[in-house]
Amino acid sequence: MAKERLYEWLDSQMSNMFYTSNNPHEVPEYIKANLKDELRHYQEEAFRRFQFIQDDNLIAGISNAGFQRKQLLFNMATGSGKTMVMASLMLYLYKEFNYQNFIFIVNTDAIIKKTQENMLNSQSNKYLFNPSGISIDGEQIMIQPVDNFPAFKDKNTIYLKLTTIQKIHGELIKPRENGISLESLEEEDIIILGDEAHHFNASTKDEKKNKESWEKTIVDKMLYLRDGNKLLEFSATINMDDKNISQKYSDKILYKYDLGEFMTDGYSKNVLRLQSSENDDEKMKDALLLSQYRKLIARENGILYFKPIIMFKSSKIKISEQKQLDFNAIIENLSVESLTKYINQRKTTVSSNSTLYKVFSYFLEQDLDSVIREIQEDFEARNILNANEKNMLNEDNAVLLNSLEDINNPIRVIFAVAKLNEGWDVLNLYDIVRISEGAGVTRTATDSEAQLIGRGARYFPFEYEGEKSFKRRFDNQNTDLRILETLHYHTINEKGYLANLEKSMNAVNLISSSDETVRILSTKLKHSFKNTNVYKQGNLFVNESRETTPEDFNSLEKFTISKEWETEYFGSTVETDYKGNINDDTVIQREFEYLTVDKRFFKKALQRNPFFRFINLKKYLPLLKSKDELIDSEQYFNGVSIKVSLPKGQHISDLSAIEKLEIIDKFLTYCEEKIRKNYQKEIGLKVFKPISIKDTLRDYEVVVPLYETGHITQRIELHQMKGKDWFVYTDAIMNRLEYAMVELMGSFIHELEAKYKQVYLIRNDEKATRYKLTEFGGPRGFMPDFILYLENEEFVYQVFVEPKGEDREKEDAWKQEMLYALNGSDVEIIGENDNVKLVGIKFYNNKNKREFISDLSEKINNGEILDGKLELFIGE
């Protein structure tokens, strides 16, 4: 058994120099093309770890380290898109390992209905695959739901059985006609996908040895039935502090991405607690007004469809039913007089910097008669759903509950007890109100609440100013729009309960604060800087962009497709350890031959791949006139050479027509990936134009919540910069990594001041400048965190400096490439001569200070090393 945990071992192995330099594992293009949405960086990392652990070339090193790959667990935060990872793994296991049988096991029927929408209903907005269809190697792939796996399988079909733990247990213990049985499972390998996997651990948690338990059914009876079977578990709640669970899962947790990381990365709403001593009726009124305030703020800012949901959470069904009646009465009895009186009374009881104070002030300035009419229309009884009703989980209600974001879904309020604690995907839940009557205050109760809050914290990707974002965009800005990225949890102000709630939130690393605990940090441009010619007359430079034209895509070369393509057929397997050392004594010798591409084969291969249908190709190759031109023209496939690696002694002439066709299929898949990847509607150019510094920089402020639960790795702090004339703002508002870099640069700034007449470090905060570059040859925007402005009699340098956490280096590698490209001779600056130079340098982080200083010194100090704080390097 391994001494360290699998995910920790993978952290070290996948960050070592040999692995990162070879970079062997990337998400294949066929995965990206067949998913509806782009994988996020952490989902890609989860996928890459699975590739690593399944790589046969690394199996010796993995085994020697004490790890296995038959049963693996992905420990990922609620709301982080675990099902998207499952979908990508299904395609990968089908394509690379020929698995066709998948069993998806969950704990409740509600999750099954949700998964049907995710995996099977291409008309659903929750569908995870490409709605146009799944295509791999030119073949259309079907996902077919089954109760039992057929003995004779259709080609190009993935068979998916959706079931609960309880049902699969019953089927295997007492087989039924046309159902699944251990005998039927003995015939072929299966992949078991376990969602909310903590439910599988009954025997571990209870320390029982009951052979008929659900866990025994899945692991002992199904998983080990065949050597090729695999169990892939997914859970947000694996308690590794429990000795038994830790021992069981130490060598199985492949990837760990907790709620704190998810929230810090900006993929969730912010979570604020409204702690109140008010009764339930008043909490209901507060939530009602807060919810409607969100809707109205959205409308005032051009966000036309924004429907925030309220959830009222009770401890018992009878209480929940009564509270629904009470809420209906509140809506019916609203009047201008009663609402005005309530708002004025409540306003005196809340802090002046709280959200509720802002809400109450807002409504006192509105036409309350109009406000009430809209509230009574929005919150009429038919727009309220009670999740406790017996028919709640019928098909219509389940779809309604899992499509709350849809434009035609009218629901504004959910009343619930426990049915929605797991498996409920909702993005536009903004208020969770804890009904006080009968509520528990134990740690068990607060653990459940923390889980629900985590589920409600999922981000709602609304469209603003023509753009839809899947991450928060108003963090730290003092704007009313922050309310659209904030979940409020309305709870009681009781000491013992709050202590338990805090423990529960910390246990899942749920980052939150009470509503009033925010700071507004502000900084201004220094007067001394505003009096300089640099500020008054100086420029920054931003690159231009343009829409692409048909001429940009008039040949395969424009997509970086090589006319000579190599592939391996009848590939040999060479075993290496995880460092790349070859363990096998023999390597199969290989020889290359060229495949003569017969026009008939090419036409047939094109017909087999839906991507190469003419109507689809015209989107990417707008000047293409016909399929014949695609084959006959030198600009396209005419002249292509396919070089095939064959084991010594075998020849192209030995291959059958089908085998030759499969080689051309592979070539077309390569072309498809290149075309998809390199086609852009707008691209950044290497042509830079000047923009005035005084019109670009401005004073700004940052709103910083004082988080009270969860672990924050990068807290934003204010650092006074008095006496540091080289920093253009009075204060530096930044995280620890950014400020460490500023301190380092400050330690050698005197050396630069001896060389340059003007030396200024400009903080490029999105709240301050909106100064953004556009990716060269691509559409992505890039705001370098800092610009170092240097000027003497001969030169003006603008150095783009970017601190980057190690966990973000891979995701943002394109930014590093862009910074390096700034140093090229092909960069043009409009209206300037060669005396103005743009400089990009290596990312800064805590591990590469030496390389950072070396690169900076080489480019702006004639290679003479800037001394810096040498003590910063001690111990490295």
UniProtKB/TrEMBL annotation:
Helicase ATP-binding domain segment(s): 35-277
Gene3D superfamilies the UniProt entry points to: P-loop containing nucleotide triphosphate hydrolases (3.40.50.300)
InterPro entries per the UniProt record, alphabetical: Helicase/UvrB_N, Helicase_ATP-bd, Helicase_Restrict-Modif_Enz, P-loop_NTPase
Pfam families (alphabetical): ResIII
One term of GO molecular function: ATP binding
GO cellular component, one term: cytosol
Transmembrane intervals: 72-94
Keywords: Membrane, Transmembrane, Transmembrane helix
Name this protein carries in UniProt: Helicase ATP-binding domain-containing protein
Organism: Enterococcus gilvus ATCC BAA-350
Source species taxonomy: Bacteria, Bacillati, Bacillota, Bacilli, Lactobacillales
